[in-house]
Each structure stands twice: as C-alpha cells, then as structure tokens.
Amino acid sequence: MSAILYTVKEVSALIHTNPSYVYELIRRGFLPAMKLGSYKVRAESLEKFLADSEGKDLTDLDDVKDLPK
Predict the structure, then answer these.
(1) In the 8-state DSSP scheme, what is residue 58?
(2) Is the pTM of this model over 0.85?
C-alpha cells in the first residue's frame, strides 16, 4: 500500500530539499497541508504541487518565474 500522507521530513526527502523549505511552501500556500499532531501532506497534494510547479523556478518564493525554454 502506498503512503497517502507524508510528513514534512518525508516530503523534503522526496523533493530533495530541506524541511524548512517545505514549511515555507506550506506557510505561503504553495503546498496544502494539514496538522495531525505535526504537519502532513497528502500524496495527492504533493503530486498536484509538483505538476503545477513544473517549468517554474521556485528558488525565490517571492518571485516565482518560468524557466527559460
């Protein structure tokens, strides 16, 4: 059975970043989450975030840009 919920630490490992960046994505509304003791992200929400973010530069969340083609 596949995971349906991921912890922030698991999300950060999956997308090869650090937990503080994942918390920032959640805080700014880029990545939907819920709090069940600690923050959890639905697998479906993570997949949607990744699909919606494809082709974007998310280095600076204050200035998200399209990647050059």
Answers:
(1) -
(2) yes
Dihedral pair phi/psi, residue 23, rounded to 5°? -60, -40
Structural domains in the chain, sorted by start: 5-63 (1.10.1660)
Please report, in tens digits, the pLDDT of each residue of the chain (69 residues total). 678 999 999 999 999 999 999 999 999 999 999 999 999 999 999 999 999 999 999 999 999 999 998
DSSP codes of every residue in 5-48: EEEHHHHHHHTTS-HHHHHHHHHTTSS--EEESEEEEEHHHHHH
The backbone region for 21, taken as left when phi is positive above 0, alpha when psi lies in -120 to 50, beta otherwise, is alpha
Name the token pair of 34.
């819920």
